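Re-running the complex after MR caught last week's input typo. The corrected sequence lines follow. Everything else is unchanged.
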Amino acid sequence: MMKNNDVIIRVKDLKKSFNNLDVLKGITTDIRRGEVVVILGPSGCGKSTFLRCLNLLEEPTGGKVFLDGTELTSPSVNINEQREKMMMVFQHFNLFPHLTILENLTIAPRKLKKIPADEINKKAMELLTRVGLQDKAEAYPNQLSGGQKQRVAICRALAMEPEVILFDEPTSALDPEMVGEVLDVMKQLAGSGITMICVTHEMGFAKEVASRVIFFDEGVIAEDDTPDEVFSNPKHPRLKEFLSRVC
Amino acid sequence: MKRLKSKSYSIRPFIILMLLAITLFAFVSCNSDDKSKSQSKVQTIDDLSGATIGVQLGTTGDIFVSDYEKEGSTIERFNKAADAVQALKLGKIDCIVIDEAPANAFVEINPELSILEEDFAVEEYAICISKKNPQLREDINSAISQLKQDGTLEKIISNYIGDSTKGQFPYIPKKDVDRSNGTLKVATNATFAPYEYMEGGEIIGIDIDLAKAICDILGMSLKIEDIEFDSIISAVQSGKSDIGLSGMTVTEDRLKSIDFTDSYTTATQVIIINNGSIDTNVSFKEKLHNNFVVDSRWKNITNGLLVTLEISFFAVLIGIVLGFLIAILRSTCDKTGKFKLLNIILKAYLTIIRGTPTMVQLLIIYYVIFASTDINKILVAVIAFGLNSSAYIAEIVRGGIMSIDEGQFEAGRSLGFTYSQTMFYFILPQAFKNVLPALCNEFIVLIKETSISGYIGIMDLTRGGDYIRSRTYEAFFPLIAVALVYLVIVVVLTWLVSKLEKRLKNDEK
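Corrected-run output:
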């Protein structure tokens, strides 16, 4: 508990099962403020489920999740309020098709944080400028390419000024030539002090940007170390096998 | 190019309307050709066996001729005597069995019809009254005997029947009567001249004058309810009306469910036949004039239209509010497993509403649920059609909600929105756009379905046309006029919705 102020997310013995299938079999880990954590693992290992349990999109079957000292898994917690501090970027973007790009960015701050329209519009335009999409502000999501959509989705998350962003395979649904533009935005973010937890298959990103790599295997953490250690000196046999297949 | 396109779009409905009108009027000539050639095969009472006999549903004529069914006759039961007259004129039936007085009135305006000299039956008219109300029955009986003694009743009857006395003795309600004994609600069916019929927008006739005279004696004020003849007894039974006064004969069957006062007049059942001799060559223009201009008959259409629009509008409103609510609750249960019990209740509600005919629902709401309350009929119709529509809208909208990608929910929730905020800001707007065509369809069905409002005595568009029909004995013009008005409403609605749909689509493309 000494480093409590440093720990932003604390996960204790997190379990999740669907019907009789145990997907997460007890995950315990701490994530510190400002860390860029990349979660690797073969498909079906539970890494996406883990991410979705962190913001309670999936209800954990057991264990506890703390965000900044508050227990999210407690029944008395106002989960909507807590989620404002922890945004999520989805594999399939999930932009709101009936709203313009600008409205996609501003609706949550306006309705939930009651930020005045001109203030949040200005901020949203700054964010869009940062990702090079300022001229798409009045467009609708269907008019954008996949890469553009995902950049907008990241801006939508940033507009809420969260402490943590969860990335759930942000580049998996993109055409290969669009992966780069999204990773560039994520690399930019990594230096800004925001806590990032990414489920991804982009090994380059993990090597270059991550401060820590967690390898999931069959519902448990098999290895948890710096990217250097993980990639150059893998210990767990399943990790070795995994790396030999993807690298 | 774009401007041209949008212009042609906006006039399209009117082109369709024009084409339809032309097609319909092309039928006029065909229609008048094969008209009333057939002379009735009934010439004496003995010919009734095997013939097709028209009666008004639920009248004594109906009861009497039912015996002929065993002898191979076909009985056609009409809601209104005037409909039977039309059928006879068109040769669809061989004769009509009906009370003498209205028969005279019908034959007077329809020269090709005549009454057989032999009377079919003689019967006595009385007022029907609930068995639960013996005191009122006694009061009315003493009022009737008083009216018989002082000659008032005779004057009332001779004011309507008899060439020399007609119009001589109009009954004028006394002004200085203390009417503190309440209101006498009288159910009647104003299609039965001279006992009760409409003239100049008012219900008049022997029975109506009799009701006025009774009210003067009892110190009550009078309220006339114009409903279908076969609904009168149930209206009196349920307490919707205090008495039924509609040229009604005492029969054994009726006595089982209702009481009758002493008889106030004797009437004869006669047989009307079609001689097919008179060539009614009235010009198109004259017919048009007769159907719509005389007596300002067009007002029946316009007033009816207003009522139809009023009912439809508020019913749609109730339908949307209730329908969306049910849809949201049901899809919430589908998605999260909450409200399980409520969901079962709602499912039962949808099953009942969607599983029974709208007309039966309307009648149940009027005669059963609001039986003993004096409620505005239009309100009853609004509630009935609103509830009915809500069931269909609920399932349409639920389908729309369930069709929205789960990711939209997750995106909303992950941003910090509550379940209901997510529903309201993200799911419903998208679902609404998707289900708009189906909703429009439901609104069209609803508007047309309000045409059954006449069954509880509402003067809606359809009944307005029916009323003209009962005065002019002409089927074509009133029906086509009514059909065209419905068509215009639906075309305008469809056009508005397609404009809205286009606007919502423009948002994305």
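None of the earlier attempt is carried over here. The beta strands of chain A are 7-18, 21-32, 36-40, 62-67, 70-71, 86-89, 164-168, 195-199, 212-217, 220-225. The longest strand of chain A covers residues 7-18.
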